[in-house]
Amino acid sequence: MSIEPIRAFTSRMVALPVENVDTDQIIPARFLKVTDKAGLGEGLFADWRYGPDGAPEPGFILNRPEARGAQVLVAGDNFGCGSSREHAPWALAGFGFRAVISTFFADIFRNNSLKNGLLPIAVDEAAHRRLMALAAEGGEITVDLASQTVTLPDGEAVAFPIEPFAKHCLLNGVDQLGFLVGVGPEIERYEAEHPAPVSTVGA
Q1: FRET partner for 127 with CA separation of 20 to 30 A, picked from 46, 105, 150, 154?
Q2: Mapping DSSP to helix (H, G, I), strand (E, B) and coil, where does residue 108 land?
Q3: Count of C-beta atoms within a 10 Å radius of residue 4
Q4: What is the pTM of this model?
Q5: Phi (first) and psi of residue 158, to 5 degrees
Q6: Strands (DSSP E) found in the chain
Q7: What are the strands, taking DSSP E only, across 2-115?
Q8: Shortest CA distance to 1 belongs to which of 161, 185, 169?
Q9: What is the pLDDT along the chain (203 residues), one digit of tens a residue?
Q10: Strands lying side by side in the sheet with 157-159
C-alpha cells in the first residue's frame, strides 16, 4: 500500500539505445513464478546481462561500473511493449531505477510502473536525443515530479506529462489501494449519507 515517494532527485543516467524493448526482455518469463518483488532486480535484462554459463556479460551497460547507483534509465522508443507483466517495473525498481525516459511507453507498462513507484518519463524526440547522448557520457539530471520537469546540466528544463492522480500517489508514497484506505472515513460518511436506492443485501 505504501511505496517510496518520488519527489525531486538528482542522478546519473544509464543509456540503453534499443528500440521496442518488450517486457520479456526486461524480465524473462522464467522469473515470473514469484509474487514477491524481492530479488527481481537480479533478473532485470537477464538474457542480456548474463551469458549461458550465468556469468555477467562485461559489455552490457548494466554490468559496467558507471551503471552502479544510477537511478535513471534512458531507453529507446516504445519501451515496455509486449505482455502486461507487472514484474517488469518491479525488476527495474529492484535494480535501483526510479525513472525511465523514452519517447513512448506501452500503456500497460506505463500504468504498472506508476502503480509501483517507477516514474515513466515521455519526452519528445529532440529532448530524447540530448538525454541519450548525455546518458552515454554518464551525465546527471534532476528529476522533479512536483514541477514535472527534467533539468539538464546546462539548466534547461524539459517538461513531461503525468496523470494528476498518479502524480499525487507518487508524491505521497501511496499506491491506489493505500489512497483508498486513506480516504476510508470519507467513503463511509458518503455511504451513510447516500444509502443505496435498492438493497443488494438478501432478506
Answers
A1: 46
A2: helix
A3: 10
A4: 0.90
A5: -105, 120
A6: 8-16, 72-75, 99-102, 119-122, 140-144, 149-151, 157-159
A7: 8-16, 72-75, 99-102
A8: 169
A9: 688 899 999 999 999 999 999 999 999 999 888 777 888 999 999 999 999 999 999 999 999 998 999 999 999 999 999 988 899 999 999 999 999 999 999 999 999 999 999 999 999 999 999 999 999 998 999 999 999 999 999 999 999 999 999 999 999 999 888 888 888 888 889 988 887 777 776 65
A10: 119-122, 99-102, 72-75, 8-16, 140-144, 149-151, 157-159
Are 69 and 96 within 8 A, CB to CB? yes
Measure the CA–CA gap between 164 and 186, rounded to whole angstroms. 20
Q: What is the DSSP letter of 93?
A: H
Half-sphere exposure of 123 (CA within 13 A, CB side): 25
- Grid coordinates standing for 108? 500497460
Per-residue b or e along 135-164, where b marks 16 or more CB atoms closer than 10 Å to that residue's CB? beeebebebbbeeebbbbeeeeebebebee
**Which residue, among 145, 66, 65, has the nearest Cα to 99 in the 3D structure?**
145
CA end-to-end span of the chain, whole Å? 35
Query: In this structure, are strands 157-159 and 149-151 parallel, antiparallel, or unpaired?
Result: antiparallel
Nearest to 16 by CA among 48, 42, 39, 47: 48
Report which DSSP code applies to 64: S
Nearest Cα to Cα of residue 149 among 4, 5, 8: 8
DSSP H or E stretch at residue 130? helix 125-136
